[in-house]
Amino acid sequence: MLDVLIYGLLRGATFALVAFGFSLVLGVLNIVNITHGIFIIFGGLITYTLFSELGWPLPLAVVTASLATGALAGVLQKAFIERVHSANPLMVLVQTLGLAIVITSIFEKTWGTSERLINAIIPGYPIIQVGDFIVPTLEVVTFVIALASAGVLYLAMERTEFGRTVRACRDNPRSAALLGIDISGVYLKTMIVCGLWTGLAGALLITTQPLAPYMHLHWTIEAFLIVIIGGLGSMPGVLVGGLLYGIFNHLAYFYYPAFAPALIFSGLVVLLLVRPQGVFGLGAVIRK
Amino acid sequence: MSDAKRRASRAGIGRRRLLKSAAGSSALISAATYLPGLTLSTPAWAQKGVVKIGGSLPLSGSFEKVAALYRGGYDLWSKTVGNKMRVGDRELDVEWTIYDDEFNPARTAQLTERLISSDKVDLIVGTYGTDTVLAQGAIARRYKKLTIQAGAASARVDEEIGGTTTFTVVGAAAAYPRLAMEFIAKQNPKPKTIATITYDDAAYKEMTVEIKKLAAELGIKHVLDVELPINTQDLRPTVLRLMRAGAIDVVYSTGHDVPVIKLVQECQALQFSPKALFGGHLTTTPSVKQALKERLNYLYGVAMWLPQFPYKDPYFANCQAFANKHKELMGFEPTYHAAMAYTIPLLYETVLRDAPKDDPFNSEVMRKKLLALKGEQTIWGPVSFNDRGRITVAGLPVIQWQGQDPQVKVLYPDSMADGSAKYPTPAWSARG
Amino acid sequence: MLRINDLTAGYFPGVPTLAAVGLSAEKGQMISVLGANGAGKSTLLGAIFGIVPYVAGEISLAGTSLNGLKPHDVARRGVRLVPENRGTLPSLSVHENLLLGGLGLPKATVAERVERELQRFPRLRERFTQRAGMLSGGEQQMLAIARAMMAEPRLLLLDEPSQGLAPVIVEQIFGLLAELRGADIAIVLVEQDVGLSLEVSDYSYVLEKGRIKLHAPSADLVNNPYVREAFLGVA
């Protein structure tokens, strides 16, 4: 049991990282961004190309993939989403679905349709023995990076002027504008931040999970689920949501694999009955 | 019916003749379905010297990739025979019509209808997927046409349309693990226990049932079956269960190619190394090696088809020659899909060689000839059909990936072997 | 300071809510805009801020045109609006709301001004770390004004500051507004409480159906028969 919990926790941190950006964009731009999974895939495949094909050191490949995904997110926001968003945020759902399909086929032309996976170990310390089971060192490092990047994002949101402007736009964009905040600028930066963190998630994921362009929607949905579990508008909520999801997933697939999806979704339904605002949702504070 | 009448009169056939040709209580209904045949006084094959082959494939959507492989197989046959087919004493030009059915059964039915009644195809091939194959078969049956398909291994095809309308060149799922089980029992030290991973799909469940049965016969204890939803993301809990289940010598995973990637990845992450790990019948899909690279080393599998298999047909002396031709024409190595699809028109060609002169594409005649095939030599292997139209196969040869740049070696049956097993599999830390 | 000439504005093309409006407010002056519900008072403030989509005519601040600017650009030119719903940011603390009021200013200046506003509104000091969404209506209004003053705007627009507040709080807030009057700031007050407005402002405009019906020094309007009848309920 302990091993299942620990492995679930390790996975959960990356799940949370997958969902931070989604939560941020959902909260601030008030849109369900269907290209979110694209950011995961892009981050992962860039890492694959740089590390596995061009032989870059893994840390450098991961950082570059994160930056590249941030840039991709910025370009999408500026070139496509911004215009539709100012007209009708709901239309962005349809628009990003279209974008996701187009980008997927571009990815398939670039990387092919096959699943990619990075085989990496921490040189010299490939595994850590924990009691009677082992954990790949890289997964512990990934866990730490996921938590640390969550912490950085949290501090950036809570302690910096940028974070305040982002939260101001989330609360009430019109009031934010009246204070001199350039809302479309904040939206662009929010999307870039989403890209940076989500690209990092993809880069970390591809060391443990095969990724291919066609999987983007799966990850978008996964992100959405975690945000719902954790609660809208709460960064710690997303972290807890991700960890819970990781643990619950592992428990379900360990004890009742054949019914795992049904179990997981029943759990979600029950959670929403008991706490409709999610584990940490702001719910009552922000009324839109 | 009124539609049939209209068509009949347009084709210049009197109503009386139409009625006369039909008999029995359902005469009118079946008359309508027979119409395409009746409306042509001189069929296209005789008029223009053309044989029309048609079908549909999911050319767009999730199965785009595999559909393209099938289509490549059809094309390869056409190019191999120079676009000509001998039908009885005549040599006819080959004309293909392949529609995109989008993996949609309703669309497939519609397209099959169109192929038969407007395009007036002589022979039907494909498609891919159980429901689409059944939809295609339902329409073909209505028009008393035959189909040969390679895209559905499910027993439902056999039960509903097999042998009467549809012939299937992909073997029954239950046969897939047979040779693997024989092979396992012969290893030294002989494995005592086996565990299975079964994906939630009829074909995979049939495999596991067969494995359990054979294990009992061969004196190997089946200790654990982990049944998984088909899209299971994370195989870690599964590998954990295998590790916690006590000493498991052999793990046999059913399922397609992505699960194999995840399984091996997790086995390595947790340093789990049974004496033999079987990845099912799709370990040779290129993406598996692309993702796993050297981690594939020591992985076992069963193979539907490989270029090193010792089969031949009238055009290729061996599978390697077929593979070379495929690579030359398509630019990449063929997977089993191409060999399977290529064999479909080839089988039509085989049974049409001495076709009756006046009615060469008579379905009943073709059907009997297909059922009568006894070990017909093809690069897909010897072809015989059971009375349900299913190809009979003893089992799938056992392979193992070997080396740091892993290559496939055929291990079993001995008659096909080009390498020997590296058994038992060493611990991950000892793999170099 | 603020000059508006021949302003036509509305939310739909060809359907002006305001027509041919002209007004001005000088540095140190507080003007009030009176009018019934739907007369176009809030539209006027929205037009200044670039929130109203269809605007024709001239709006300028200290000689620079504000026409066509986005709201945040108007704000950056030294204009603040305290909107009808106060516009406080509910999930941010009082402190954070104030900090955003001083967006773009040097840290030390911001800190100084936060302290100044806390002195002006001691209630906010008590609530300093609480989320703005937890404040009472009066406290939110104080926060909104304090936040606007963080920027030391050249032009302050107030939309219905008394709305929904207890009389004691209204008195308190208008007392503060009276203090602000005469500083280096032009204030435009839109208020339903006409009596109060006329009392605190220097000059008033009366809007009716989108047009300026009359305008005069506030003191003169107190005795204007039309104003008395229409707004003060005195025949």
TrEMBL record, chain A:
UniProt cross-references to Pfam families, sorted A to Z: BPD_transp_2
Keywords noted in UniProt: Amino-acid transport, Cell membrane, Membrane, Transmembrane, Transmembrane helix, Transport
Topology relative to the membrane: Multi-pass membrane protein
KW Lipid biosynthesis (keyword) present: no
Single GO MF annotation: transmembrane transporter activity
Leader peptide range in chain numbering: none
Compartments (UniProt record): Cell membrane
Record-level GO BP terms: amino acid transport
GO cellular component, one term: plasma membrane
Family, as annotated: Belongs to the binding-protein-dependent transport system permease family. LivHM subfamily.
Protein name as it appears in the record: Branched-chain amino acid ABC transporter permease
Organism: Vineibacter terrae
UniProtKB/TrEMBL annotation, chain B:
Keyword Transport attached: yes
CDD domains: PBP1_ABC_ligand_binding-like
One GO biological process term: amino acid transport
Protein's UniProt keywords contain Signal: yes
Key words, A-Z: Amino-acid transport, Signal, Transport
PROSITE patterns: TAT
Residues in Leucine-binding protein domain copies: 51-402
A Pfam family it matches: Peripla_BP_6
UniProt xrefs under InterPro entries: BCAA_transport, Leu-bd, Peripla_BP_I, TAT_signal
Family: Belongs to the leucine-binding protein family.
Name the UniProt record assigns to this protein: Leucine-binding protein domain-containing protein
Native species: Vineibacter terrae
Upper lineage: Bacteria, Pseudomonadati, Pseudomonadota, Alphaproteobacteria, Hyphomicrobiales
Automatic annotation (TrEMBL), chain C:
GO molecular function, one term: ATP hydrolysis activity
Record bears the keyword Chloroplast: no
PROSITE patterns xref list: ABC_TRANSPORTER_1, ABC_TRANSPORTER_2
Domain of life: Bacteria
Residues annotated as domain ABC transporter: 2-234
GO biological process: L-amino acid transport
Gene3D superfamilies for this protein: P-loop containing nucleotide triphosphate hydrolases
Family annotation (InterPro entries): AAA+_ATPase, ABC_transporter-like_ATP-bd, ABC_transporter-like_CS, BCAA_Transport_ATP-bd_LivF, P-loop_NTPase
Pfam families cross-referenced by the UniProt entry: ABC_tran (PF00005)
This protein's UniProt keywords: Amino-acid transport, ATP-binding, Nucleotide-binding, Transport
Family: Belongs to the ABC transporter superfamily.
Protein name (Swiss-Prot/TrEMBL): ABC transporter ATP-binding protein
Organism, as annotated: Vineibacter terrae
